[in-house]
Specification:
Blueprint (H helix, E strand, L loop, with lengths): L8 E20 L3 E17 L2 E9 L1 H7 L6 E8 L10 E11 L19 H7 L2 E2 L2 H5 L8 E11 L3 E10 L14 E5 L3 E5 L2 H6 L8
Parallel strand pairs: 1-7
Antiparallel strand pairs: 1-2, 1-4, 2-3, 4-5, 6-8, 7-8, 9-10
Protein backbone atom coordinates (compact mmCIF):
# COMPACT_ATOMS: atom_id res chain seq x y z
CA UNK A 1 0.00 0.00 0.00
CA UNK A 2 1.32 3.42 -0.94
CA UNK A 3 2.28 5.73 1.93
CA UNK A 4 -0.16 8.63 1.73
CA UNK A 5 2.57 11.09 2.74
CA UNK A 6 4.50 10.33 -0.43
CA UNK A 7 3.63 10.39 -4.10
CA UNK A 8 3.89 7.71 -6.74
CA UNK A 9 3.17 7.69 -10.43
CA UNK A 10 0.49 5.14 -11.29
CA UNK A 11 -1.22 3.79 -14.39
CA UNK A 12 -4.98 3.72 -14.78
CA UNK A 13 -7.61 2.70 -17.31
CA UNK A 14 -11.38 2.59 -17.30
CA UNK A 15 -14.76 3.71 -18.56
CA UNK A 16 -15.87 7.25 -17.76
CA UNK A 17 -18.94 7.41 -15.50
CA UNK A 18 -19.06 11.19 -15.24
CA UNK A 19 -17.05 14.30 -16.13
CA UNK A 20 -17.37 17.35 -13.90
CA UNK A 21 -15.59 20.67 -13.42
CA UNK A 22 -12.94 20.78 -10.71
CA UNK A 23 -12.73 23.78 -8.42
CA UNK A 24 -11.19 25.18 -5.26
CA UNK A 25 -13.36 27.19 -2.87
CA UNK A 26 -12.17 29.61 -0.21
CA UNK A 27 -14.55 30.38 2.63
CA UNK A 28 -14.28 33.09 5.29
CA UNK A 29 -17.26 33.18 7.64
CA UNK A 30 -20.18 34.58 5.59
CA UNK A 31 -18.11 37.43 4.18
CA UNK A 32 -16.60 35.47 1.31
CA UNK A 33 -17.08 32.31 -0.75
CA UNK A 34 -14.67 32.44 -3.67
CA UNK A 35 -14.70 29.76 -6.38
CA UNK A 36 -11.67 29.11 -8.61
CA UNK A 37 -11.96 26.72 -11.55
CA UNK A 38 -8.88 24.50 -11.88
CA UNK A 39 -9.74 21.82 -14.45
CA UNK A 40 -11.99 18.77 -14.65
CA UNK A 41 -12.48 15.50 -12.79
CA UNK A 42 -12.92 12.22 -14.65
CA UNK A 43 -14.90 9.69 -12.62
CA UNK A 44 -14.07 6.22 -13.87
CA UNK A 45 -14.80 2.57 -13.31
CA UNK A 46 -11.73 0.50 -14.07
CA UNK A 47 -8.25 -0.22 -12.76
CA UNK A 48 -5.81 2.01 -10.90
CA UNK A 49 -2.71 0.96 -8.94
CA UNK A 50 -3.49 -2.57 -10.13
CA UNK A 51 -6.84 -2.65 -8.32
CA UNK A 52 -10.33 -2.58 -9.82
CA UNK A 53 -12.95 -0.11 -8.65
CA UNK A 54 -14.33 3.40 -9.04
CA UNK A 55 -11.95 6.35 -8.82
CA UNK A 56 -11.49 9.96 -9.92
CA UNK A 57 -8.63 11.53 -11.89
CA UNK A 58 -8.06 15.29 -12.11
CA UNK A 59 -7.11 16.64 -15.54
CA UNK A 60 -6.33 20.10 -16.90
CA UNK A 61 -8.54 22.23 -19.12
CA UNK A 62 -6.00 21.83 -21.93
CA UNK A 63 -6.27 18.05 -21.70
CA UNK A 64 -10.05 18.24 -21.70
CA UNK A 65 -10.18 20.50 -24.76
CA UNK A 66 -7.82 18.16 -26.60
CA UNK A 67 -9.61 14.88 -25.89
CA UNK A 68 -13.23 16.02 -25.33
CA UNK A 69 -13.87 13.26 -22.82
CA UNK A 70 -17.45 12.28 -22.07
CA UNK A 71 -19.47 9.55 -20.40
CA UNK A 72 -18.86 6.09 -21.85
CA UNK A 73 -15.38 6.78 -23.24
CA UNK A 74 -12.72 4.19 -22.46
CA UNK A 75 -9.47 5.89 -21.47
CA UNK A 76 -6.06 5.16 -20.05
CA UNK A 77 -3.17 7.21 -18.76
CA UNK A 78 -0.86 7.92 -15.86
CA UNK A 79 -1.35 10.08 -12.79
CA UNK A 80 0.09 10.71 -9.36
CA UNK A 81 -1.17 9.79 -5.92
CA UNK A 82 -2.04 12.67 -3.60
CA UNK A 83 0.50 14.06 -1.16
CA UNK A 84 -2.21 15.83 0.86
CA UNK A 85 -5.47 13.85 0.60
CA UNK A 86 -7.51 16.37 2.59
CA UNK A 87 -6.82 19.07 -0.03
CA UNK A 88 -7.91 17.17 -3.15
CA UNK A 89 -11.15 15.25 -3.77
CA UNK A 90 -9.90 13.37 -6.84
CA UNK A 91 -8.02 10.17 -6.04
CA UNK A 92 -5.25 11.03 -8.51
CA UNK A 93 -3.97 14.18 -10.20
CA UNK A 94 -1.20 15.44 -12.51
CA UNK A 95 -2.54 13.14 -15.23
CA UNK A 96 -0.43 12.42 -18.31
CA UNK A 97 -0.20 10.15 -21.33
CA UNK A 98 -3.95 10.31 -21.74
CA UNK A 99 -5.41 8.24 -24.55
CA UNK A 100 -9.00 7.61 -25.55
CA UNK A 101 -9.22 3.91 -26.40
CA UNK A 102 -12.83 3.98 -27.57
CA UNK A 103 -15.70 6.46 -27.86
CA UNK A 104 -18.79 6.24 -25.73
CA UNK A 105 -22.32 6.71 -27.11
CA UNK A 106 -23.02 9.92 -29.03
CA UNK A 107 -23.81 12.86 -26.78
CA UNK A 108 -27.41 14.00 -26.50
CA UNK A 109 -27.13 17.78 -26.38
CA UNK A 110 -30.87 18.02 -25.68
CA UNK A 111 -30.65 15.89 -22.54
CA UNK A 112 -31.53 17.77 -19.37
CA UNK A 113 -32.02 17.06 -15.70
CA UNK A 114 -29.34 15.76 -15.75
CA UNK A 115 -27.55 17.67 -18.51
CA UNK A 116 -25.13 15.19 -20.09
CA UNK A 117 -24.00 17.03 -23.22
CA UNK A 118 -20.48 18.26 -23.94
CA UNK A 119 -18.88 20.17 -21.10
CA UNK A 120 -18.13 23.87 -21.68
CA UNK A 121 -14.85 25.66 -21.06
CA UNK A 122 -14.04 26.69 -17.50
CA UNK A 123 -14.75 30.34 -18.27
CA UNK A 124 -18.41 29.39 -18.73
CA UNK A 125 -18.59 27.85 -15.27
CA UNK A 126 -16.81 30.86 -13.83
CA UNK A 127 -19.35 33.24 -15.39
CA UNK A 128 -22.37 31.17 -14.35
CA UNK A 129 -21.46 30.80 -10.71
CA UNK A 130 -22.95 28.07 -8.56
CA UNK A 131 -25.31 27.14 -5.77
CA UNK A 132 -24.83 24.66 -2.98
CA UNK A 133 -26.01 21.17 -3.96
CA UNK A 134 -27.27 18.50 -1.59
CA UNK A 135 -24.55 15.87 -1.25
CA UNK A 136 -27.05 13.03 -1.69
CA UNK A 137 -28.22 14.55 -4.97
CA UNK A 138 -24.61 14.85 -6.12
CA UNK A 139 -24.01 11.16 -5.39
CA UNK A 140 -27.30 10.13 -6.99
CA UNK A 141 -29.42 11.72 -9.70
CA UNK A 142 -27.04 14.63 -10.35
CA UNK A 143 -23.82 12.61 -10.58
CA UNK A 144 -23.74 12.42 -14.40
CA UNK A 145 -24.67 16.09 -14.89
CA UNK A 146 -22.09 18.40 -16.46
CA UNK A 147 -23.17 21.16 -14.05
CA UNK A 148 -22.44 19.14 -10.88
CA UNK A 149 -19.19 19.71 -9.01
CA UNK A 150 -17.41 18.39 -5.94
CA UNK A 151 -15.13 21.19 -4.78
CA UNK A 152 -12.01 21.29 -2.62
CA UNK A 153 -12.86 23.76 0.17
CA UNK A 154 -10.49 25.72 2.42
CA UNK A 155 -12.07 27.52 5.39
CA UNK A 156 -10.13 30.44 6.85
CA UNK A 157 -10.36 29.38 10.50
CA UNK A 158 -7.82 31.72 12.09
CA UNK A 159 -6.99 34.50 9.66
CA UNK A 160 -3.56 33.99 8.12
CA UNK A 161 -2.69 31.26 10.63
CA UNK A 162 -4.79 28.13 10.18
CA UNK A 163 -7.34 26.73 7.75
CA UNK A 164 -9.77 23.82 7.86
CA UNK A 165 -10.44 21.66 4.82
CA UNK A 166 -13.37 19.69 3.49
CA UNK A 167 -15.21 18.85 0.27
CA UNK A 168 -18.54 20.36 -0.80
CA UNK A 169 -20.94 19.71 -3.67
CA UNK A 170 -22.19 22.55 -5.88
CA UNK A 171 -24.43 23.04 -8.92
CA UNK A 172 -23.71 25.31 -11.91
CA UNK A 173 -26.96 24.33 -13.63
CA UNK A 174 -30.11 26.31 -14.49
CA UNK A 175 -31.91 27.71 -11.45
CA UNK A 176 -35.20 26.21 -12.61
CA UNK A 177 -33.91 22.61 -12.57
CA UNK A 178 -36.65 20.43 -11.07
CA UNK A 179 -34.14 18.04 -9.51
CA UNK A 180 -32.16 20.68 -7.65
CA UNK A 181 -31.98 20.54 -3.86
CA UNK A 182 -29.76 22.79 -1.79
CA UNK A 183 -29.54 20.47 1.18
CA UNK A 184 -28.84 21.58 4.73
CA UNK A 185 -27.20 24.95 5.53
CA UNK A 186 -23.43 24.59 5.81
CA UNK A 187 -21.51 25.50 8.92
CA UNK A 188 -18.53 27.82 8.48
CA UNK A 189 -16.47 27.81 11.69
CA UNK A 190 -14.08 30.47 12.94
CA UNK A 191 -11.75 30.31 15.93
CA UNK A 192 -13.36 31.34 19.25
CA UNK A 193 -16.55 32.38 17.41
CA UNK A 194 -18.33 29.10 16.81
CA UNK A 195 -19.96 28.58 13.42
CA UNK A 196 -22.11 30.70 11.16
CA UNK A 197 -24.28 28.99 8.55
CA UNK A 198 -24.37 29.48 4.80
CA UNK A 199 -28.14 29.23 4.30
CA UNK A 200 -28.15 30.02 0.59
CA UNK A 201 -28.03 33.78 0.24
CA UNK A 202 -24.42 33.55 -0.92
CA UNK A 203 -25.78 31.43 -3.78
CA UNK A 204 -27.76 34.44 -4.98
CA UNK A 205 -24.61 36.55 -5.06
CA UNK A 206 -22.59 33.85 -6.83
CA UNK A 207 -25.23 33.40 -9.56
CA UNK A 208 -26.35 37.00 -10.01
CA UNK A 209 -25.12 37.03 -13.65
CA UNK A 210 -27.97 34.81 -14.86
CA UNK A 211 -31.72 34.32 -14.65
CA UNK A 212 -33.75 31.22 -13.76
CA UNK A 213 -33.46 29.58 -17.18
CA UNK A 214 -29.69 29.95 -17.48
Amino acid sequence: MIDKNTQEKIEFSGIIRSVQPRSNVWRYRLDNRTHSMTGYNLFLSGTAEGEEGNFAVAISEKQMLKHRFHIGDEVRGTAWTKMYPKLEYADYYRAGGLKKLSEGPDLDEEAREPWTGELPELSVYDWRGCRMLDSRSWKGKCFTCKWACMANVAIEYNWGVTQKFRFESFCYGPKNCKQYKMGKPRAVPYKDCGSVYDEGWLDEICTENRDDEE
